[in-house]
Amino acid sequence: MENSSLTASAAPTPHIMVVDDDREIRDLLAKFLERHGLRVTAVRDAREARRALPLGHYQLIVLDLMLPGETGLDFARWLRSSASGHAQTPLIMLTAMGEDTDRIIGLELGADDYVAKPFNPRELLARMRAVLRRSSESVKPLGEHPHRIIRFGGWTLEPARRRLINPDQIEVPITGGEYDLLVALVERANKVLTRDMLLDLLRGRQAGPFDRAIDVAISRLRRKLEDDGRHAQLIKTVRGGGYVLAAEIERL
Questions:
Q1: Among residues 101, 37, 46, 55, which one has the least CA distance to residue 77?
Q2: Of 2, 47, 53, 51, nearest in space to 28 by CA
Q3: Are strands 242-245 and 249-251 parallel, antiparallel or unpaired?
Q4: For the segment 5-25, what is each residue's pLDDT rounded down to a tens digit?
């Protein structure tokens, strides 16, 4: 396991875990990210990642899905479980070019983004910065008073703590990406948002012709909101258009 030293900075330095069994990729990526002001812990497999997690406070995990032994998908599933203690740690997947099935499964497990191998380190860095930015602040302030409590359809959003509360007043675990998607919908309640619009809001990029990232994220968010996809009452699908949050918004 390779650990970097803490970069001296007046502001807190984001701590990134890179999980990849290719030593050359680990070393090159760690050096590249450190040159751009990030602190990096690089490990070769899921077992080393599990050992490293309690040793640091990580703002983001970059995870290769093709790991020996326990796969990246298995590790992501464990990471997102409540038992792991890291259910909300942002996650970017590294996937082999053309491995659409693994990518979709990873998104369903709660990954915040994905990058296909071989990748340009600068593109990965840009994606990482976008995820880090989204995890520290919502897509945009909720109205003029971003710390107000927001209610919709019996559910409650607490922007100051980035929490989602169900109608029974129980907190529902939600990832950074899921929270930001919900915020984008709540901010624009009763307005149709196309997939391209949502991707642009959340990732700053346009959807490719086969990009199902938003569809997968919507499906995952519906499950969190107990909103049956076939008979959805909160997040409705607009044929040929996109999605709309059909609810009255109350700000407290």
A1: 46
A2: 2
A3: unpaired
A4: 333 334 468 899 999 999 999
42 CA to centre of own chain: 20
Distance CA 91, CA 110 (A): 8
Q: What is the C-alpha end-to-end distance of the chain, expressed in Å?
A: 48
Q: For 157-212, where are the alpha helices, taking DSSP H only? A: 176-187, 195-203
- DSSP-assigned beta bridge partners for residue 242: 238
Q: What is the pLDDT of residues 145-193, one digit of tens each?
A: 455 789 999 999 988 788 899 999 999 988 888 888 898 899 889 988 8
* Residue 82, C-beta contacts closer than 8 angstroms, at least 6 positions apart: 173
Q: Give the count of alpha carbons within 13 A of 2, CB side only.
A: 19
Residue with the two structure tokens 């559910």: 155
